[in-house]
Specification:
With 136 residues, this protein is α/β, with parallel strands linked by helices. The protein is 46% helix and 19% strand. The chain has one domain (14-129): Rossmann fold (3-Layer(aba) Sandwich), CATH 3.40.50. It has 6 helices and 5 strands. Helix 3 packs parallel to helix 4 and helix 4 runs parallel beside helix 5 (99-108). It starts with a helix and ends with a helix. The model has no long low-confidence stretch (mean pLDDT 89).
């Protein structure tokens, strides 16, 4: 899979992203960051159950996943997504105070972690990393 810069220089097919966070404000913030990146389309889910349904429906190129959510939390959601699709590229997004949960999410199959608040530079770096690590 090509990195962001390579894709914007010639690919007409946009990347797809699933943003998963129980906070509407956090989803809006991440959506704005994604919208600032050329040739990436984002969908949203407000909880883990929605995320699993949307992941199966959309098969996104990557996922931005919050860790702490009511109901099905991020770690279990990552585990279920990665069990159904071992090639899933999940980027965890959470505060640094949840380091133990981040480690659990990485063990469950997440590929990268970005601390909140997320910046465009950090987001691009994370996306490039997970796209570059997926040699399909």
């Amino acid at each position: 899979m090509q990195r962001l810069e390579e894709r914007s220089n010639g690919s007409d097919v946009p990347l797809t992203c699933l943003i998963v966070d129980d906070s509407a404000f956090a989803r809006l913030h991440l959506k704005r960051l994604i919208d600032s990146i050329e040739n990436v389309l984002a969908s949203e889910a407000a909880n883990g159950n929605e995320a699993i349904t949307e992941y199966r429906r959309l098969k996104p190129d990557f996922v931005l996943m919050d860790i702490i959510m009511p109901g099905l939390e991020g770690v279990e959601t990552v585990k279920r997504i990665c069990q159904s699709d071992p090639g899933a590229r999940v980027i965890m997004v959470s505060s640094l105070s949840h380091r133990d949960k981040v480690a659990e999410a990485m063990a469950a199959g997440a590929k990268y972690f970005i601390p909140k608040p997320v910046t465009t530079v950090e987001l691009r770096k994370a996306i490039d990393s997970v796209l570059g690590s997926a040699k399909n």
